[in-house]
Amino acid sequence: MATSQKRLALAVIDFLSGSLSDGTVSSEDTESIEIAKSCIADTFHVDPNDQAALKDAIGDQSLLSIYGVYEKLKGKTTTAPMPGATSSKSTTSTNKPSGPTPTSPEAEEFKSQGNKAMQQKDYPKAIDLYTKAINLSPTNPVYLSNRAAAYSASHKHTEACADAELATSADPKYTKAWSRLGLARFVLGDAKGSMEAYQKGIEYEGNGGSEAMKKGYKTAKEKVDEENKEGGDEDIERAASPRGAGGAGAGAGGMPDLAGLASMLGGGGGGGGMPDLGSLMSNPMFASMAQNMMSNPEALQGLMNNPRLREMAQNFGGGGQGGGMPDISALMSDPSLREAAMNMMGGGGRGAGRGAPQ
């Protein structure tokens, strides 16, 4: 049988024993747990009392902490306790490593070599060496944080962010990890997350935090404030524009499209087209309509879409059939046009002020 399978069996037995001692499993299930341990030991031919073999299997860690790293890498956030749990320890989120783990001489050697590679700016080599150290001690925050620094130096900020998050989960008091997490998040465009990471670092450093940590926090906060201001400005611009950026039936700044009105009434001028604007505005009714159109572009759009008005405009202004403005009384003899005109002038009750800004 493969040695790795025996190591895993020992790790499972250790996990079951720990579940009894820490209260994750109630004392009522003790007999079941002991039977399970015995069955695993017999099936995989391992001795759960062999401390040397157990240390070789999981080192100074536990199966739970190792699995916590896996869950963190997979983005899990499982927090539900196991059935029958009676201890407050059972409510601890399993996505977080149980804490920093002791190191081995071999892992420390890999870390030292990785540090030398970093000094030489050989970042791929440093990443490889830190990875070897992590393989020996997966939840060591120093190794994870160092590899995060190497990833950042290699412009692999997503990987740096993942390692830094693992490091802060393994040991929140290791403040370098918060600093490296803040940097990675900032470069990835998460200014708010960066600010939060630096804030955590300041809190764990105590005494107001180091200058480097405070500088990182300040930079991230300025970016957050800038983004909030830009978002607020865009909202104000959208609110100030009655139909977005101009819109149909409106010109710049929400002004009615007089060219469109001229076209609707028979063209842009000349023979058979729009009459002189001064003559048109001398009529009190049209003067009032124009004033209302200036403050209510949407009403102008509704008038332009009136099929009866379009038909009459074609009759008096299109196709070269003479020119000039039609008789106002002829226009107002049509009930629908009369109502539209009354609405545009602010009268007639139900049309008054419709769509106007408050």
Your description of this structure?
By secondary structure, this protein is mostly helical. Helices cover 63% and strands 0% of the residues. The chain contains 18 helices and no strands. Helix 6 packs antiparallel against helix 7 (141-153). It is elongated and about 105 Å long. The termini are far apart. Mean pLDDT is 72; it is low at 76-98, 243-274, 318-323 and 347-358.
Write a short abstract of this structure.
The chain is mainly α. The chain has helices at residues 3-21, 30-44, 51-58, 63-74, 105-119, 123-136, 141-153, 157-170, 175-187, 191-205, 211-240, 258-264, 277-281, 284-295, 297-304, 307-317, 328-332, 335-344.
